Amino acid sequence: MSKTPINLQNKFSQFSEYWSPRVIAEMNDYQFKLAKIKNEFTWHVHHKTDEVFLVIEGTMSIEFRDGDVELSAGEMYVVPKGVEHKPYAKEECKIMFIEPRGVVNTGDAGGDLTAKNDVWL
Amino acid sequence: MSKTPINLQNKFSQFSEYWSPRVIAEMNDYQFKLAKIKNEFTWHVHHKTDEVFLVIEGTMSIEFRDGDVELSAGEMYVVPKGVEHKPYAKEECKIMFIEPRGVVNTGDAGGDLTAKNDVWL
Q1: Which residue of A has its CA nearest to B69?
Q2: Which chain B residues contact residue A32 at CB under 8 A?
Q3: What residue ranges define each of the domains in chain B, with the CATH number in brackets?
Q4: Alpha-carbon distance B72 to nearest alpha carbon in chain A (angstroms)
Q5: In angstroms, rounded to a whole number, what is the distance separating the alpha carbons of residues A112 and A19?
Q6: What is the rounded distance in angstroms from the CA atom of residue A17 to the CA atom of residue A37?
Q7: Predicted TM-score (pTM) of this structure
Q8: In this predicted complex, what is the ipTM?
Q9: Span B62-78, pLDDT tens digits
């Protein structure tokens, strides 16, 4: 059993692509993922699971059809299952998000922003 | 649906007791909990679930029977299910930890440090 902690900034330093989640840890059947995000993501929904966003550095918003949530570093938000949402960051933002293993980043929407799943750092 | 982000430092400002977890969010059947910790916790084990620790401010260690893990702010660690461990912090440390709803902080060990479960902030 490794006794090495998972250092978030160290992990962020190992990739630069936007909207390209990297798995850094698993807890039971849930995964902790890091992403660097900038500009608009796509509207999508996860029908079977909630999704947690935690901002590590920078600011982002999560747009909903009935309003937005603004998140800064040290803030988190739970997107309930079945609720359509669109992440957005004006400037580069570093986030951690948590969801069950196997969840695709674009949910039901597909498209060019769909990332390869289960890519570990 | 609330559009208010969960601000970790704001939540930490609302309690002062050590080893007294506060639930700040739920994702499916998992809970996100905050705790302020200082000094020794008790040796214990969670037989049915992994447990994730993320240090928000300060430093802590997680002692295992075969060695320790040292964690600073911005670092996390997954304690695998079934592995006996003892959290420790020389000075006050603010942590977030994530585990399924219903997990008792002292696991199988019981004792004076067993906290009331499911206390929300």
Answers
A1: A3
A2: 52, 76
A3: 10-100 (2.60.120.10)
A4: 9
A5: 11
A6: 8
A7: 0.97
A8: 0.96
A9: 999 999 999 999 999 99
